[in-house]
Amino acid sequence: MPNIAVIGAGVNGVASAIKILEHYVNDGKTPIKVTIISEDFTPNTTGDGSAGLWGPYLLGGTSQAKVYKWSKSMHQFLEKIWLSEDAGEAGVCLLPCIRLSTSTVDTVEDFWRDIVYGAVDLSKEQLAAYNKGRSVKFTSGLSFVTYTSEPIKLLPYLMKRFTRNGGVVVRKRITDLDAFVADSEYDVIVNCSGLGSKTLLNDDQMYAVRGQVSRVRANWIFSAVLDESDDGNYIIPNVVLGGTHQERDYNTKVCQNDRRMIVDGCQRYIPGLEHTECLFDWVGLRPGRTQLRLEAERRGRKLLIHNYGHGGSGVTLCWGCADDVLNILLAAKNGSKL
Ligand SMILES: Cc1cc2nc3c(=O)[nH]c(=O)nc-3n(C[C@H](O)[C@H](O)[C@H](O)COP(=O)(O)OP(=O)(O)OC[C@H]3O[C@@H](n4cnc5c(N)ncnc54)[C@H](O)[C@@H]3O)c2cc1C
């Protein structure tokens, strides 16, 4: 019986574990044991404070073709949940969005525009409305509809789905990955430890991308506005005001200067935010990498699959990356080259 360990209980660990488990359970031919081993679980993973908006972001030099494939798979997964009785429990919401760019060379990055629903460029008149009172003008904008799936709800839903199918959960910190791979009883190990991989693997291509956000009570906002400029703000129902993306900044404390930039910046888009109640401020460290690492290596009889470095898109990519984790595993079992 294949005995598989997935290290990490963030969106990528849980998605990978479910993909593998459900494949074998649905196949019904081979019994399987899948165990998630993690130091922390929801609500204490990186995704738990995020809005979980679908959209590729901060992925270093990761191939655009792969990002397209992985993010499309997640969009289709979210569509399936949205159309099922699980949508509320899994926290999947359909959301109108506006993305705005101040770039004078490019328009809004939109290689994914055929994945989302109803993407159209903003007209000159619409842009002018967003540009009122701004010194740096928006040069292009895109309107579309996509999903949010807040990990604070999505993760408990996925964990339930995992354990309902016989998945095992162990709380434990791995301090020596080489020893764990060599000495543990597992024959396949999937490493989804996010930023933890920096120390576990001594991976100097990994770095934190600090993100600070403010949660406010504003249940009268029903659409997202995202300014793509480097110092741009975003507003995502229910409601997350953002945000920062400070590379190689490991400070997990709330910074008052960042708070001002977030609150003042977002109020410029929606003045009514001035009177909203702040629920809490939150900081997370995105697992940044020069490019996302999804590949396998053989360690003697054992197979070690890496799936980490998802930057600002871990939620957007988790289901598609989990597809590839499963494909790698099945190919290895069939003796194909990795
Ligand atoms: C402010 C902010 C906003 C964001 N907004 C979005 C968004 O709207 N959409 C989107 O797609 N993405 C967003 N992201 C990015 C997203 O949250 C991350 O990319 C994603 O959560 C990474 O998931 P992961 O599973 O790879 O890693 P993590 O969630 O970091 O999980 C890693 C897991 O590994 C465990 N672990 C680590 N080291 C060890 C060890 N040595 N032994 C055992 N266990 C270990 C941890 O306990 C944890 O369970 C946002 C991030 C931030 C900070």
TrEMBL record:
InterPro entries: D-amino_acid_oxidase_CS, DAO, FAD-dep_OxRdtase. It is an enzyme of class 1 (oxidoreductase). The keyword Cell membrane does not apply. FAD binds at A51, G52, L53, G311, G312, S313, G314, V315, T316. One of its GO terms (molecular function) is FAD binding. Keywords: FAD, Flavoprotein, Oxidoreductase. It is found in: Peroxisome matrix. Its EC number is 1.-.-.-, 1.4.3.3. GO terms for biological process: D-amino acid metabolic process. GO terms for cellular component: peroxisomal matrix; peroxisome. It comes from the Eukaryota. The keyword Ubl conjugation does not apply. Residues 4-323 form the FAD dependent oxidoreductase domain. D-dopa binds at Y234, R286, G312. Gene3D superfamilies: D-Amino Acid Oxidase, subunit A, domain 2, NAD(P)-binding Rossmann-like Domain. Its cofactor is FAD. Belongs to the DAMOX/DASOX family. This is D-amino acid oxidase 2, isoform B. It comes from Drosophila melanogaster (Fruit fly).
